[in-house]
Fold this protein.
Amino acid sequence: MEKRIKELFDLSGKTAVITGGSGLLGYKHAESLMEAGANCVLVDICKDRAMQLAAELTNKFDGTAIGIHADITSKKEVEEMKDIVINHFGNIHILINNAANNPKFEEIEQKKDLSKRLETFSVSDWNADISVGLTGAFICSQIFGTLFAAQHEGVILNISSDLGVIAPDQRIYQQEGLAEEEQPTKPITYSVIKTGLIGMTRYLATYWANKGVRCNALVPGGVYTGQNEAFVKKLTNLIPMGRMAEADEYKAAVLFLCSDASKYMTGATLNMEGGRTCW
């Protein structure tokens, strides 16, 4: 029987695990899924904040949200987290790989911190960033994807970035009065991780295609979070739509990619960055 449009977006009885769940977009991802009837698990190393936000979500929607502390770079902790979720909700249907070490603009802007420049970027920082953004996503996809394949049902959504499709324009971070070797930059790991997630998306989508597991990637752009006017002007000049995104504007796309509304879509990258990657 053909489903009506509203039914395709219905996530009633589904449970979603969201890594980096206490971050700005992680919380918004949970809002979008819970509004459609899902239960959500906010996974984060900041346990208190994850639990606080989960309580807010539970009070706001009909479903239930819980916050769990887990280091996603540890396979043991992810396995334990999976067992906790299954014991609580009975099953898991959606994984959103959202966690990342992403320096805020204010951190990049610090004049005295030159450690993020390519010439001086440390191997320890490289390993730390890759461990969370790529290794963590791999571990979670391996563990939850194997579960999804066994039950012949499941969705993995990788949160990439416009900087997974294009290179960062380092000019938007530059400050007057500083020599080139002193200018702040977006670190190399961010681009590598977000590009890697797109490759991982294609691999997972084809690996489990016959097991009912779908995997897609969302490519968001910059989000307004109170950045200074000069930075916003430089960035929006690179965006055809002439503005950054509001945090709420990705919610419908996340719901689409996690629901049956996209049931014939896998291995795809959905760009939602105001047209920035067109230029």
